[in-house]
Design a protein that fits this description.
Blueprint: E1 2-6, E2 12-16, E3 28-36, H1 39-46, E4 62-69, E5 81-84, H2 94-97, E6 123-126, H3 129-132, E7 133-135, H4 142-145, H5 151-161, E8 170-174, H6 178-187, E9 194-199, H7 202-211, E10 215-218, H8 224-231, E11 237-242, H9 247-256, E12 257-265, H10 277-280, E13 286-288, H11 297-305, E14 315-320, H12 324-332, H13 334-337, E15 341-345
Parallel strand pairs: 8-9, 8-11, 9-10, 11-12, 12-13, 14-15
Antiparallel strand pairs: 1-2, 3-4, 3-6, 3-15, 4-5, 5-7
Helix pairs in contact: 5-6
Length: 346
């Protein structure tokens, strides 16, 4: 088969690789119908994730068709159309029983495209298939469910749920990329009073309004702290979400939050960020971090099926799977291409 192979920081190639095979009775082999590229893949290529070995097939999001299952797999079978989750879960360990699948103790968690070969290929081996694959509801297209593999549950769980968004809250989202937009879209389910999107690119702020932001702030030309304080009577936002992964944006979030408020860090950080406890300790601020568990995926699938959520707006560019090198160039140069998510189809 052909696959996108990581050869070390800054080096990737679309090349031949042996087809995956069943290794454990709980595995399934999925033919990739549709996949995409994540900001985390760019972090890997920058060298921010040193646990990724050279020779690894990248990618952790896909919709595909089951072509083979191990002897212990019960919930999916050959021919099923499935969503391949970015998180694999044994379903039996202490953390999985708590719904904290990202911390699976039996070899699960975020492993696809990280510790085992991933989905940017013609086929993928999916460990723990019964707990890590989701049947695609009838009538839904690949594009309607593809972004439920990662960005939608990430924005929802690590942003909205960790930030405990409540009716009437002022919510500020720093970073209007795909995950930030997912947080904006799903925050609306909880009836916040105001959602403020903050970014450096007008094109992304325009997208943020389309996804549900009530106000936007371009922090390259405006002072985000002053603007947020103006609209919150000098208090700050109830919930602030960091969706970039840079020290400066994390520190901005801690300046935007009100006393007693919540900062939910979603972004993937590749370098240390300063935690200003000298000013935060007295403000009763809660700061949360996390890797998505995807425990919300069944709920999000139901909301998409019922027309309550429409994730198709994330897709800005479409490619064939064998055009993945061009797709990476477009996705990585989002400042000029205005790319949000690319869709790669077989």
């Amino acid at each position: 088969m052909q696959a996108l192979i990581y050869h070390g920081p800054g080096d990737k190639q679309w090349e031949s690789k042996s087809n995956p095979s069943i290794g454990d009775p709980t595995d399934a082999i999925v033919k990739i119908d549709t996949t995409t590229i994540c900001g985390t893949d760019l972090h890997i290529l920058k060298g921010d994730v040193p646990t990724v070995d050279e020779g690894r097939t990248l990618g952790h999001e896909a919709v595909g068709t089951v072509v083979e299952t191990g002897s212990a797999v019960m919930n999916v079978r050959e021919g099923d159309k499935v969503l391949v989750s970015c998180i694999s879960a044994c379903g039996r360990c202490m953390y999985c029983k708590q719904g904290m699948y990202s911390q699976c103790l039996n070899g699960g968690g975020w492993i696809l495209g990280h510790l085992v070969d991933g989905t940017q290929a013609e086929y993928v081996r999916t460990p723990f298939a019964d707990n890590s694959l989701y049947q695609v509801p009838e009538g839904l297209s690949d594009e309607q469910v593809l972004f439920l593999a990662d960005i939608l549950p990430t924005g929802f769980e690590i942003g909205v749920l960790n930030g405990t968004v409540e009716p009437g809250d002022t919510v500020a989202v720093v970073g209007a990329g795909p995950v930030g937009l997912a947080a904006i879209m799903t925050a609306k389910l909880y009836g916040p009073g105001r959602i403020i999107a903050i970014d450096l690119a007008d094109s992304r702020l325009e997208r943020a309004r389309e996804f549900g932001a009530d106000e936007t702030i371009n922090n390259s030309s405006e002072n985000a702290v002053e603007r947020v304080m103006e609209v919150t009577d000098g208090l700050g936002a109830d919930v602030v979400m960091e969706a970039v992964g840079l020290p400066a944006t994390f520190e901005l979030c801690t300046e935007l939050v009100r006393p007693g408020g919540r900062v939910a860090n979603i972004g993937v950080h590749g370098e240390p960020a300063t935690l200003h406890l000298e000013t935060l300790w007295i403000k009763n601020v809660t700061i949360t971090t996390g890797l998505v568990n995807t425990s919300s995926t069944p709920t999000l699938l139901k909301l998409v099926s019922e027309g309550r959520l429409d994730p198709t707006g994330f897709a800005t560019h479409h490619f064939k799977l064998n055009e993945i090198m061009d797709a990476y160039d477009v996705f990585a140069d989002a400042a000029h291409t205005n790319a949000m998510k690319v869709v790669l189809s077989s």
